[in-house]
Design brief:
The chain is an alpha+beta fold. It folds into 2 domains: 128 residues, Immunoglobulin-like, CATH 2.60.40.380; 277 residues, Purple Acid Phosphatase, chain A, domain 2, CATH 3.60.21. The protein has 8 helices and 24 strands. The protein has a 7-stranded mixed sheet, with helices on one face. It has a 7-stranded mixed sheet with strand order 12-13-15-17-19-18-20. The longest helix has 15 residues. The relative contact order is 0.12. Bound molecules: fe (iii) ion and calcium ion.
Length: 525
């Protein structure tokens, strides 16, 4: 009997005795447990889903993992007790990819829940639950989608993820800042009142790997991964604050190497369906997912291909706050946020869509958000890292949304650590009219933890920008959406106290978008 075969039989015997309590079980933190980072799934198709794990017996010290290729076994079943296993196999975890694995399981039934787990020697991973997308021609009754972003380790617990797991979503969309590039490498979130020291910035591949491992030890984050498949994009902090394409805010000459290291670590830690890149200098990760004919989700990358931020401070890259009068570059039509290839891909995907809802899952606030009244002599003041720094590209995108005739466009965002509900239109400075209709409805989630500005300031933004119908920056949390053929309902869920992992959540506001009627209808506040 070969060694792996024997191992498998040993595991099978052990697992036959395991109970359904394995489902959503918190992973063991026992020293040396290889699945200390949990498991995850993502990128669901009608016939498949990607499973992920990484062998890390000591999350902060990769040298504790043998520098050898390790064979992991995986199983997928119709039930949490694995009585009815429908697929299984083995996969090699190699040191070159930090002993991370991605298994693209195919041949599954559409619109169905599955359970999965990995095994290494005697060790069995936590059991994850995942599902496939509905059949292409079906019209499902509903899609329950949780949306989250921005989870700086230093700023609180991951209670939002506990609530996401308890909400039983069909799908989780994570819109960037899964890690932040700075903070102490340690396994405990800072206690309430503890002073946050900015240190230990990540630069190398080993640094970024430790960062993901640190974040992924959190049991609530693991629980949200165990609950449903995820679709993910990245924002700046997966690499460095405010970076744009191949340039960071410090104008560091070796930024290309840093970005490649960060991209590789992202690839190693996310359940992405991507062929293994030959190198990580560029990683094409914008993708599209269909939920039958109910929804088409476009997961966008607005970091890798964007033009540099307009009018940075002297000697710097990164963001600035500028007026259109002082920064004519804002009006340069050659400046793109998505890059021309991704813009064309998006337009083709919208034009071919037969979905009732066309959802752009992207990083940041799309609506104009002037910091002073646009009627001021300077014509407003804008933060250049968001879509306000790319107004011509934004107008092009909104024209595409309108011009392709794709049904019911919704834009989802994160990054700004603020809940926003907005109405997107071609010209934000002019009122809604027949010539300037609401093109899409936008919902932006707050952060899972990351800090924000006082609510007083956000209230001023809302007052100055009439297309922003709601704004709330004083609460951390996430969004929960229920998408049906007739309407989409969105709830903004805020935590009472982000530093307390046991904290309760409260609905801060709820909204409805009716099929065929773009705009923000507030149903609860
Ligand atoms: Fe953030
Ligand atoms: Ca960001």
């Amino acid at each position: 009997m070969t060694w792996p075969r024997r191992l498998f039989l040993l595991n099978a015997a052990r697992l036959a005795a395991a109970s359904t309590s394995l489902l959503l079980a918190r992973p063991s933190n026992a020293a040396g447990y290889p699945f200390s980072l949990g498991v995850a799934s993502g990128a669901p198709l009608p016939d498949g889903v990607v499973l992920w794990t990484r062998v890390a017996p000591d999350p902060l010290d990769a040298t504790k993992t043998p520098p050898l290729a390790l064979t992991l076994r995986w199983e997928m079943a119709h039930d949490a007790a694995f009585r009815n296993v429908v697929a299984k196999g083995s996969v090699l975890a190699t040191p070159e990819l930090a002993h991370s694995v991605r298994v693209d399981v195919r041949g599954l039934q559409s619109a169905r829940w599955y359970w999965y787990r990995f095994m290494l020697g005697d060790a069995v991973s936590p059991v994850g639950r995942t599902r496939t997308a509905p059949a292409p021609d079906s019209l499902p009754d509903a899609l329950k989608l949780a949306v989250a972003s921005c989870q700086h380790w230093e700023f609180g617990s991951y209670a939002a993820h506990r609530h996401i797991a308890q909400a039983n979503p069909d799908l989780v969309a994570f819109l960037g800042d899964y890690i932040y590039e700075w903070g102490a490498y340690r396994l405990r979130h800072p206690a309430p009142g503890e002073r946050i020291v900015r240190r230990d910035e990540s630069f190398t591949l080993d640094d970024y790997r430790r960062r993901y491992a640190q974040y992924k030890t959190d049991p609530d984050l693991q629980a949200a991964h165990l609950a449903a498949p995820w679709i993910v994009t990245w924002d700046d902090h997966e690499v460095a604050n405010d970076y744009a394409a191949d340039r960071d805010e410090r104008l560091a000459p070796d930024f290309a190497a840093r970005r490649a290291a960060a991209y590789q670590a992202f690839y190693e830690h996310m359940p992405l369906r991507l062929p293994p890149p030959r190198n990580f200098a560029n990683v094409r990760m914008f993708q599209r997912y269909d939920w039958g004919r109910l929804a088409r989700l476009f997961v966008l990358d607005d970091r890798q291909y964007r033009a540099y931020e307009a009018c940075p401070r002297p000697g710097r890259g990164g963001s600035n706050s500028v007026t259109p009068r002082a920064c004519p570059d804002l009006r340069d039509p050659r400046r793109s946020m998505l890059g021309l290839e991704q813009e064309a891909w998006l337009e083709a995907g919208l034009a071919s869509s037969r979905a009732r809802w066309n959802i752009l899952a992207q990083q940041t606030l799309m609506a104009q958000s002037s910091q002073i009244p646009v009627t001021a002599p300077d014509g407003g003041r804008f933060w250049t890292d968001g879509w306000d720094g790319y107004p011509i590209a934004r107008r092009r995108l909104l024209d595409t949304l309108a011009g392709t005739g794709a049904a019911n466009p919704l834009v989802l965002g994160g990054d700004v650590h603020t809940f926003y509900a907005t109405e997107l239109r071609r010209d934000f400075d002019r009122p809604v009219s027949k010539a300037n209709p609401v093109v899409a409805t936008e919902f932006v989630g707050t952060s899972v933890t990351s800090n924000s500005r006082p609510q007083q300031r956000t209230a001023e933004y809302v007052a100055m920008n009439p297309h922003i119908k709601f704004g709330r920056s004083d609460k951390r949390g996430y969004m929960l959406m229920e998408i049906t053929p007739a309407e989409t309902r969105t709830r903004f869920l805020g935590l009472d106290e982000v530093r307390d992992p046991k904290t309760a959540q409260r609905e801060l506001a709820a909204f409805r978008v009716e099929d065929g009627k773009p705009g923000v209808e507030i149903t609860a506040i």
